[in-house]
Amino acid sequence: MTVMTEEIFGPIVPIQKIASEDEGIRLANDSHLGLNAYVFTKDRKKGERLAERIEAGSVVVNDVLINYGAAEAPFGGVKQSGFGRVHGDDALRDMAEVRHVFSPKLPEPSRDPLWFPYSTKVYKWQLRLLRTIYSSAGVVKRIRHLF
Fold it and tell me: Where on the phi/psi map is residue 116: left (φ > 0), alpha (ψ -120 to 50), or beta?
């Protein structure tokens, strides 16, 4: 049924008979959408167990609107159901663009000696440093490589 697999944007409650809980979970998750899902059962623990297996932004047990009314709970979809969140701490994070601005506290040298282009003097010091670090000689000989 198309109503079970397409986004319908209306107050429609499609009901489909299933043979088992596993079939119900498989059918619920076999979709490119995932905004809300609902589990209705007399056994609340069973409903919670089933709800944890459904791939949706919100899964509600024995209700249909309480999740949107809870301002502290993030509301939004997964898969191809919308983007971002409303409500909760995650909403602010999802609607913000994270970036980093760095401003060093120490004064910067006029030119970084470790970056190209190297002067002859800097190049020679770098060679000495590399020989010191990677030499198989003893500590005293390694230190001599520097000078």
Answer: beta
If we measure between CA atoms, which residue out of 62, 33, 34 comes closest to residue 48?
Answer: 62
In angstroms, the CA 141 to CA 38 distance is 74
Q: How far is CA 37 from CA 4, 56, 116, 127, 131, in A?
A: 12, 6, 58, 65, 65
Give residue-wise pLDDT tens across range 8-56: 877 888 888 999 999 999 999 999 999 989 999 999 999 999 999 999 9
Neighbours of 137 (CB within 10 A): 12
3-state secondary structure 77-127: CCCCCCCCCECHHHHHHHCCCCCCCCCCCCCCCCCCCCCCCCCHHHHHHHH
pTM recorded for the entire structure: 0.60
